């Protein structure tokens, strides 16, 4: 399978000049939600964001604390937003992916946007990181991290099948020629829009492991794995809970823990009326802790 690739460099801004800049008043809610998740003391090593519009992204880039703490994809220009209202963005913790013995001190490799066959212009955002086998002097293993937002709605199942096949081919590809038969190492995570019964089988059919199923089995009712249909506002009252967001892994990775990050609420002022309380998102987030089985 030939997958069209648009290669890019992973960019980060230089450290702050330590001068405070005014925060624009536009979209303060989006900005504060981003701050809340990205500046926690227990923030993740890798963060995948979906449905990021350019205004929200610009707010993240203006925060010097976020820029100083993370490598951010597509920070050099706006092309990720060409012809689409929103896109996927990946953030990598600088504390986790730097090593003083590597050129530029970064353990980050190529970043590529793989164009999907898609009704909505979706793509797979692939980032490669190089992890030391023991110390930075003892060799490396490439870990491929793919941020996905598969096509929405039941009518696009045929696209999701093609998209999952592309994701799997990228993950299984071993371009760095590790030990014979070892294959690629990595994971894909994000909004899989797993709506139909056929969607439930796509990860396994593509020889990947569903991280939640690895931990708990597929019993949503008992283990609370649904990420959709749990929001506490009227827009989603009629939506049936579902495990739309997932983590799919190659062999060589073991899931240790998964958490469902339920969205908080924001207040929408209504002059002369009672304020509305709505959820940040119609989806919950996932936090996955895993280890590499060298």
TrEMBL record:
List the record's Gene Ontology CC terms alphabetically. Answer: cytoplasm
Mind listing the GO biological process terms from this record?
double-strand break repair
Q: What is its main location?
A: nucleus
Q: Does the keyword Disulfide bond apply?
A: no
Top-rank taxon, per record? Eukaryota
Which cofactors does the annotated protein need, by name? Mn(2+); Mg(2+)
Tell me the Pfam families matching this sequence: Exo_endo_phos
Any one Gene Ontology MF annotation carried by this entry is:
nuclease activity
- InterPro entries from the entry? Endo/exonu/phosph_ase_sf (IPR036691), Endo/exonuclease/phosphatase (IPR005135), TDP2-like (IPR051547)
The entry's localization annotation reads: Nucleus, PML body
Alphabetical list of Gene3D superfamilies matching this protein: Endonuclease/exonuclease/phosphatase
Keywords, comma-separated and alphabetical? DNA damage, DNA repair, Hydrolase, Magnesium, Metal-binding, Nuclease, Nucleus
- Endonuclease/exonuclease/phosphatase domain residues are 38-283
Please state what the protein is called.
Endonuclease/exonuclease/phosphatase domain-containing protein
Native source species: Hypocrea virens (strain Gv29-8 / FGSC 10586) (Gliocladium virens)
Q: What is the lineage of its organism?
A: Eukaryota, Fungi, Dikarya, Ascomycota, Pezizomycotina
């Amino acid at each position: 399978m030939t997958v069209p690739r648009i290669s890019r460099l992973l960019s980060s801004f230089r450290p702050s000049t330590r001068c405070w800049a005014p925060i624009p008043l536009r979209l303060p809610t989006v900005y504060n939600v981003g701050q809340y998740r990205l500046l926690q003391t227990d923030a993740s090593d890798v963060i995948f964001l979906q449905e990021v519009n350019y205004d929200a992204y610009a707010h993240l880039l203006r925060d010097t604390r976020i820029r100083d703490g993370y490598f951010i994809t597509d920070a050099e220009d706006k092309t990720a937003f060409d012809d689409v209202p929103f896109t996927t963005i990946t953030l990598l913790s600088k504390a986790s992916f730097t090593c003083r013995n590597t050129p530029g001190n970064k353990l980050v490799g190529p970043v590529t946007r793989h164009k999907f066959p898609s009704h909505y212009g979706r793509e797979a955002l692939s980032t490669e990181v190089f992890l030391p086998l023991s110390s930075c002097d003892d060799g490396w293993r490439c870990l491929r991290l793919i941020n996905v937002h598969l096509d929405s709605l039941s009518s696009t199942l045929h696209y999701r099948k093609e998209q999952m096949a592309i994701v799997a081919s990228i993950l299984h590809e071993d371009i760095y020629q590790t030990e014979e038969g070892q294959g690629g190492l990595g994971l894909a995570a994000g909004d899989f829009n797993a709506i139909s019964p056929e969607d439930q089988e796509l990860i396994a059919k593509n020889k990947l492991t569903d991280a939640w199923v690895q931990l708990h089995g597929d019993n949503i009712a008992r283990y609370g794995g649904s990420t959709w249909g749990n929001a506490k506002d009227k827009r989603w009252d009629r939506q049936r809970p579902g495990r739309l967001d997932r983590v799919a892994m190659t062999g060589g990775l073991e899931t240790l823990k998964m958490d469902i990050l339920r969205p908080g609420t924001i207040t929408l002022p209504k002059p002369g009326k009672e304020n509305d309380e709505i959820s940040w998102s119609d989806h919950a987030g996932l936090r996955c802790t895993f280890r590499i089985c060298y």
